Amino acid sequence: MSHPLRLGIAGLGTVGVGVIKIVMQHGDMLRARSGRDITISAVSARSKSKDRGVDLSNFDWEDDPVALATRDDVDVYVELMGGEDGPALASVKAALNAGKHVVTANKAMLAIHGQELAELAEFKGVNLRFEAAVAGGIPIIKSLTESLAGNKITRVMGVMNGTCNYILTRMETAGLPYDEVFEEANQLGYLEADPNLDVGGIDAAHKLVLLSSIAYGTQVDFASAQLQGIQRISIVDIKHAAEMGYRIKLLGVSQMTDAGLIQTMRPCLVPALSPLGLLEGGTNMVIVEGDSVGQIVLRGAGAGEGPTASAVFGDVMDIARGINIPVFGIPAAQLTKSTPADSSGESAYYMRLNLKDKAGAMASASSALADAGISIDKMTQHSSDDNVARVLIVTHPTTGETASKAAQAIENTGVLELPPVVLKIETV
Amino acid sequence: MSHPLRLGIAGLGTVGVGVIKIVMQHGDMLRARSGRDITISAVSARSKSKDRGVDLSNFDWEDDPVALATRDDVDVYVELMGGEDGPALASVKAALNAGKHVVTANKAMLAIHGQELAELAEFKGVNLRFEAAVAGGIPIIKSLTESLAGNKITRVMGVMNGTCNYILTRMETAGLPYDEVFEEANQLGYLEADPNLDVGGIDAAHKLVLLSSIAYGTQVDFASAQLQGIQRISIVDIKHAAEMGYRIKLLGVSQMTDAGLIQTMRPCLVPALSPLGLLEGGTNMVIVEGDSVGQIVLRGAGAGEGPTASAVFGDVMDIARGINIPVFGIPAAQLTKSTPADSSGESAYYMRLNLKDKAGAMASASSALADAGISIDKMTQHSSDDNVARVLIVTHPTTGETASKAAQAIENTGVLELPPVVLKIETV
Ligand SMILES: NC(=O)c1ccc[n+]([C@@H]2O[C@H](COP(=O)([O-])OP(=O)(O)OC[C@H]3O[C@@H](n4cnc5c(N)ncnc54)[C@H](OP(=O)(O)O)[C@@H]3O)[C@@H](O)[C@H]2O)c1
Ligand SMILES: NC(=O)c1ccc[n+]([C@@H]2O[C@H](COP(=O)([O-])OP(=O)(O)OC[C@H]3O[C@@H](n4cnc5c(N)ncnc54)[C@H](OP(=O)(O)O)[C@@H]3O)[C@@H](O)[C@H]2O)c1
């Protein structure tokens, strides 16, 4: 039996408490599986007095996460505070510099500082693990880094923000407008302190760019990911999509092409009866395509105390078992800088145009589309109660660039009451 | 850079050739990911002269797999011949005894000899890995052993025989009887040399019992798995199930209860629009439930050159990276003997009774059901062209034991033309 593996846990919110419960409830099981005791030396959070529903009296308390991260009796620093910079980054750096392994669920920090932190961890010969940062309980990091290591990965896709998926499916099932469901999600505590992280697609894109790095051996590049949030999706779009056999999902796609790396996170139409289309509520799904394996689909809870703590613990157990592989699958020094590329290939697009109620509006819009070289597959027009003509279009296959240019051209004609909604129809 | 990892591959069929292709095509990628060269020292199969579509001239040839397994220039013995005993078992033992790591796709061998082989591997301090043995390209072994190591696993379920799933979905989509689709599958080369391994549920049960061992820390116990094949499923069952919103799948369920370990592999009705219900053709799906993670669903190709070779290579890469954990997740010496238990809990059952066309047949059947304490939720009667009255029944929730006893009682009355078909309706 090896000596115990001693954790220091910073952040005692949803995830931190989940991790503590696993240690408290499953001591024997963890020992059998890892060959050693897993213990907690000390913890940290902002408020020492808050009742967190677990007994912390056996653990030392540190007010300062940096002090926690560098304690002599901590082998693994578990960072569960969150935040791109601030105490999370400072303490993780301090831990790595002190030669401690780090486990974190912090996608925001890794999406921005992942390269630097990976280089530091590998220089120090310690682990930096982050299974919980992407898609909660779904074992996607390990699958991509280890199980699929014999594959050239060709595409990674996923629905990786449970809050957005909750909002979109709830709008459909309850027939409620975006604003109302957004407020509901807020009341339920589903939204981040800055809701734009969720509904703007930022949180999901943080996850996607981590997957890209592993998939293609490239440095994490959040800055060139193309983002579009779900804020402009209306119940009309959802209903119309459903009539045509589609559902709208905030879908991330990462693909390496000859032109470079495509990373998009945006609402798309997907076939209603496909695995992605059937995804309800807060559930996440990641789809990986590799040259040998074909397509693998992984589905599970993307957030919450238990699922996220489960992922954190997978990493802890790997460290207990002595596993140490490069943070992003190949040594950080060998990760290449990718060239960002625009979405390649053609596909059908869905457009919603809210036209001003004036003569010639439709004609101007149509000719702008035709000028852009877009031909129309289906079109329906509805007049709404607010004197706006709502035109719903499905185009014949075209490029994303052409679709955006056409939408811009229509907007430039001044006939639109609202900015156009343009959504790709993904064939998955 | 460490020294190369040198493979010896026995079996150059579908999977073996797939593995060789990965080594040949992806040398640079494998080196970047594992930090060392992966090479092939020697290979073995029955026929040296057969053209296998890959150039074998750079590898030594061994007629005898045991000789291959123990060569000085082999670090990892990759067993891809198949078969429960014979050369597979002999060569794997020889490899382990010689201190070589072993990677295999051979579920039949492991389901019977897994405990003995795991003990030997751990005694020798080498790896025995078998990701490819269960559900092809789906990373279920690693997910269960490593990613979910912080969970008490509560249930594992899966559709893990692509051939059966092909037959069942093809019967439904083409409206063809079992025998015809069976013949079709045979022509397509989908069936094992002994087709009963597939359609009898044996191959899928081999996989299920390996998952049980990891999930619950118990010794592999194939002998007490309860098996029922798909041979008696008729197109009538499939159609009737569809009308009620179900699909029939050969479903494996492994569950640890207070009474003991339940391991069943049998055709069941599952909701048509559930992930399991939507599974088409040769695709596999494994569902794992853990106390922290909730439910995780993994889907992918369960067989074929690429997917299976991908799984073999995941294991090879782990060995190249120096990962070595117990074969079934905890040391083999600590795996406990499980007590087999019958399916627990109540659920609805589907029954098909083919009654002899004689007076009182229905009355006898009904009273046998009533005597067994089974109440009927739905019943429809059809008379077929062959003078048999076909009665389709859905029961109110009852235990599996009661359902089987009732079916036996009906059979004992002598009113049945054919043995009854009794299928559990799974709520997944
Ligand atoms: N929640 C999920 O389902 C989920 C899923 C995947 C990933 N994650 C990630 O996991 C991390 C934690 O998420 P969470 O949901 O557990 O957050 P949370 O419930 O808001 O908890 C955050 C914890 O960090 C502590 N904290 C914040 N700033 C601190 C500081 N400056 N010094 C010391 N402690 C500080 C807080 O202390 P007080 O309690 O005293 O305020 C709190 O205990 C984040 O990176 C998040 O993105 C969460
Ligand atoms: N095929 C799949 O999709 C799949 C999926 C998962 C797991 N598996 C497992 O993977 C293993 C291999 O399957 P496979 O489909 O690749 O089988 P296969 O195509 O039938 O190939 C078997 C290979 O083993 C060789 N072989 C058989 N007996 C031998 C002996 N006594 N000595 C030396 N070589 C011998 C054969 O040699 P010859 O070619 O000279 O006859 C052949 O090359 C089996 O355990 C199977 O259950 C297969």
Quick tags:
homodimer, 428 residues, alpha/beta, Rossmann fold, Dihydrodipicolinate Reductase, domain 2, Alpha-Beta Plaits, 3 domains, ten-stranded mixed sheet, six-stranded parallel sheet, 14 helices, 36% helix, 24% strand, binds NADP nicotinamide-adenine-dinucleotide phosphate
Question: What report would you give on this structure?
Answer:
- Chains A, B: Its EC number is 1.1.1.3.
- Chains A, B: NADPH binds at residue 107.
- Chains A, B: L-homoserine binds at residue 192.
- 2 copies of one chain form a homodimer.
- With 428 residues, chain A is an alpha/beta fold.
- The first copy, chain A, folds into 3 domains: 5-133, Rossmann fold; 140-301, Dihydrodipicolinate Reductase, domain 2 (2-Layer Sandwich), CATH 3.30.360; 349-425, Alpha-Beta Plaits (2-Layer Sandwich), CATH 3.30.70.
- Chain A has 14 helices and 16 strands.
- Chain A has helices spanning 14-25, 27-34, 65-69, 86-97, 107-124, 140-147, 162-174, 178-187, 196-199, 202-216, 235-243, 305-320, 361-371, 400-412, and strands spanning 5-10, 38-44, 60-61, 76-79, 101-104, 128-129, 153-159, 226-227, 246-257, 260-271, 283-290, 294-301, 349-356, 376-383, 388-395, 421-425.
- In chain A, the strands form 2 sheets. In chain A, strands 7, 8, 9, 10, 11, 12, 13, 14, 15 and 16 form a 10-stranded mixed sheet that branches. In chain A, strands 3-2-1-4-5-6 form a 6-stranded parallel sheet, sandwiched between helices.
- The mean pLDDT of chain A is 95.
- Bound molecules: NADP nicotinamide-adenine-dinucleotide phosphate (NAP) (2 copies).
- One NADP nicotinamide-adenine-dinucleotide phosphate binds at residues 10-16, 44-47, 50, 65, 80-82, 87, 105-106, 132-133, 136, 303-304, 308 of chain A.
